[in-house]
């Protein structure tokens, strides 16, 4: 039993160091461990080198109680994680017949020629001291090695094998190390940056003890995790609710979603929330896009059931298309230009009239990298919204690449729709 369990993550694999594979395992494990009240103090990545991995174990366990590894459990010579863990603790590996039977059965099931390579026995080699963890989705079992109060937990590298192993076996094992229950809730913000949000909440963050608040920057938005520890889940949720009420009082206008960990991993939930709101209120929508080229429509139709209210997505890139399809006046384009408040409003109004939608949203701007002028620089975008006779447009200025300008404009367009109909 540890007063404060210190955990480190070691990701094993030369392919990670070379950048051939993105290390999503470390992100997943850090988040899941935090959900049960365990903080990750260090993360390391090491190639398929036996001596360097032993050195990593030595450094990690000199300052932490538990090391969790992912990768290096395959049947080839460069898969060295189990062997290094055994060497570190002075354990001797031997063939585990029961494990080998399961591996052999699984391999024969999926190999047409029914031939099992001899090197696959490497995955069934474990010391008697190991607590072996079954792999329900692959041939590489995990294991827990323990000696003198220190633990090394080894898991396979492929996420589809590692994640269920952690959820079903490792997480319950680690949760037993604490008498407290840990519960987290997540709050998503749009329209305020991470640094500004932190400034607004500085005094709350400085005084936090239990519950704790953690900020995470997402793509164009911010996620806050509120975690409480206590005797039971109900007690924790009451503490969390009080903390969330403080957030609502301070920065509630930027909050668009509150929920459990299911809303925490994506870069954004904004389009889902907006689409669900449209479906719930039975508000029919159409889009008229120029610089975003269909991104707004694409993001909305990712939501299942949106067909009940999404009427049409129009990409009117040229001035001719704006006039012909949306009824934008030629005089408006000559006087104010395609990138203007007036054109954005007429595009939204025209899309609503053309499709019969209750609400329509439009985008027109200079996405870059060229085409900008002193009066209308790259990054200038107008977003128009028409909602049952009420019409307005927003002038936005973005920085970054062409795709970044288009992405941010599309998300802002969806957010303006959400704000109007919520």
Structure description:
By secondary structure, the protein is α/β, with parallel strands linked by helices. It has 3 domains: 7-175, MoaB/Mog-like domain (Molybdenum Cofactor Biosythetic Enzyme, Chain A), CATH 3.40.980.10; 181-263, 2-Layer Sandwich (Alpha-Beta Plaits), CATH 3.30.70.2860; 270-421, CinA-like (Maf protein). It contains 15 helices and 17 strands. The chain has helices spanning 14-17, 24-35, 50-61, 81-89, 97-110, 159-175, 194-200, 202-207, 233-251, 270-281, 295-300, 319-326, 330-336, 341-355, 402-421; strands at 7-12, 40-46, 66-70, 94-95, 125-126, 131-133, 142-147, 150-155, 181-190, 212-217, 221-230, 255-259, 285-289, 310-315, 359-365, 380-387, 390-397. Helix 10 (270-281) runs parallel beside helix 15. The longest helix is centred in the C-terminal third of the chain and has 20 residues, at 402-421. It is elongated.
Topology, please?
Layout: E1 7-12, H1 14-17, H2 24-35, E2 40-46, H3 50-61, E3 66-70, H4 81-89, E4 94-95, H5 97-110, E5 125-126, E6 131-133, E7 142-147, E8 150-155, H6 159-175, E9 181-190, H7 194-200, H8 202-207, E10 212-217, E11 221-230, H9 233-251, E12 255-259, H10 270-281, E13 285-289, H11 295-300, E14 310-315, H12 319-326, H13 330-336, H14 341-355, E15 359-365, E16 380-387, E17 390-397, H15 402-421
Parallel strand pairs: 1-2, 1-3, 3-8, 13-14, 13-15
Antiparallel strand pairs: 4-5, 6-7, 7-8, 9-11, 9-12, 10-11, 15-16, 16-17
Helix pairs in contact: 2-6, 3-4, 10-15
